[in-house]
Amino acid sequence: MHLQQQEALQLQRAERQQQRQQQDEVEDMAEANEKLQQQQQQQQQQQDSLPASPLRAASPSPPHRAPAARSRDDAVAQSAAQRAQLLAGPADAAALRQAISEMRGKVAWLEGQLERALRAREAAEEQMAAAAAERAEERAWHEAQRADRDREVGLLRAKAAALEAAAAAGAGAGSGGGGAARGGGSPGSEALQASVGAEDAALLRAYQQENEAATRRIKDLEQQLSQARAVLVAEAGRLERHFAATQEQERRHGAEAAERLQKLLDAQAALQAAQDAAAEREAELRGQIARLRQEKRELEARAAGVDLRAMEEGDALVAAVRAEMEAMARAHAEQAGAHAIVAALESRLAWFAENQEMIGASDSLIAEQGESSA
């Protein structure tokens, strides 16, 4: 009984601790949901206060759909609105990144709560297993005690039966001997027979008292065992109900976490698509700017009367000659007797340097004409 009371107290403490932990988790989740709703309202107010983007103004209003497909259309419209907000400006993209980071924090918090709940459930299961093992040991001990008492009762009953048989045999012998004594027995033999009968009666009463005490103890043990079984059954039912409620709560929390994670993944996909579209648009704009700059240089050169393509070809020719000169210089370092070739190349380089001066004069003339035209 003392072990059962200790076990019941331990289970009650574990249950109260788990209830307090679950209450704290529910309060934390309620506070987090309230904060998330406030942030969503603030973001909605900020989006309402921003001017409408060209993409939002140009997008046509969605047609009226059937109620069965309304949720899917709403999800598609929401995803399109998120992409439009991302393309509208950096402020919306920053707000969405902040919302995604906050949602990641919430998902991490929910995962931590789920992990703590799983650990609490494992601890409760371990406590239940330990309690069941202790109950099994106590039940085995009670069964062994009851078997010992049954054996003692059997021995006592056998002894009582033997004593009753001996007393009956002694009483029959005493009655026969009494007639003989009355016929011619001695007073000493009668006193001996009376003392033997009194001892047998005392032993029989003692065995009967022991038998009654053992029977009462067996009944008490059986009653205690039945009470312990009733307590175990009630406690097992309560733990099973609590475990089922905990599993249901974890299932709901897991579904909510999965839904939030899906929303986070959708938002990340929308952000990635918007970033890809922005990168493509930026590459196109850079290409257009480069082409416009090239066309501007060509127009300025034509206005100044300079063939820009010929100048570029001359620059390429100068670069080729310089490369050839460098190659010849390397060959001169390896081979001796190439002074004439080097001199010819130097004269050719001087000629190209003179042409380069002419090209520089043409560039200055183009710049002056551009300044005068501006």
UniProtKB/TrEMBL annotation:
GO terms for biological process: cilium assembly. Residues 107-134, 204-238, 264-309 form a coiled coil. PROSITE patterns: IQ. The keyword Coiled coil applies. Residues 1-12, 37-59, 76-92 have a biased composition (Low complexity). GO terms for cellular component: axonemal microtubule; centriole. It is found in: Cytoplasm, Cytoskeleton, Microtubule organizing center, Centrosome, Centriole. Keywords: Cilium biogenesis/degradation, Coiled coil, Cytoplasm, Cytoskeleton, Microtubule. Residues 1-92, 170-194 are annotated as: Disordered. Residues 171-187 have a biased composition (Gly residues). Belongs to the CEP162 family. This is Centrosomal protein of 162 kDa.
